[in-house]
Design a protein that fits this description.
Blueprint: E1 2-8, H1 14-26, E2 32-38, H2 49-63, E3 69-78, H3 82-95, E4 99-103, H4 111-116, E5 119-121, H5 130-148
Parallel strand pairs: 1-2, 1-4, 3-4, 3-5
Length: 155
């Protein structure tokens, strides 16, 4: 199974790439984590934010291969504890279906992305900066995998 993290945003600070990369490389091949960046839409003083979000959503949906189990990271989603996430990961592994996790831009995910999602995951009630979300998701997936495999990391 492969997990694809599809995120709006590019040109991340070094600490984001280092943090994400550290946890992504720890995951084994049967639970491989890949990053797919989507260039953000145009934002500025007179920008049409709804159009930018819709454009990002269209490109995000194009990045998700057919047959992938799509999961929206969204405020309206379920907030899973780490043990609960490990059970979700176990189910994804059992089903053997590739997973695409969608992280929107500053305005969130487009309606089309939310409609495509089979699940919604809320990371936190806190507002997290988008670069940090990449690191948190990678770390939590590794932690969930470590629980499933009795790896000492979760202690």
């Amino acid at each position: 199974m492969q997990i694809q993290l599809v995120c709006v945003g590019n040109r991340m600070p070094d600490w984001v790439e280092t943090g994400y990369g550290e946890f992504a490389k720890r995951l084994p091949r049967e639970c491989e984590l890949k990053l797919r960046e989507i260039a953000p839409g145009v934002r500025g003083k007179n920008a049409d934010l709804a159009r930018a979000m819709e454009d990002e959503g269209k490109r995000m949906l194009e990045a998700i291969p057919p047959g992938h189990h799509a999961v929206a990271l969204d405020l309206s989603g379920e907030e899973w504890s780490t043990p609960e996430l490990s059970q979700v990961l176990a189910r994804w592994l059992r089903e053997g279906q590739n997973v695409s996790l969608m992280v929107g831009g500053p305005e969130g995910l487009s309606p089309g992305c939310l409609q495509r999602a089979r699940q919604r995951w809320r990371l936190s009630a806190l507002t997290l900066p988008h670069p940090l979300v990449r690191v948190v998701v990678a770390e939590q997936l590794y932690r969930a995998w470590s629980i499933l495999n009795n790896h000492p990391y979760h202690r």
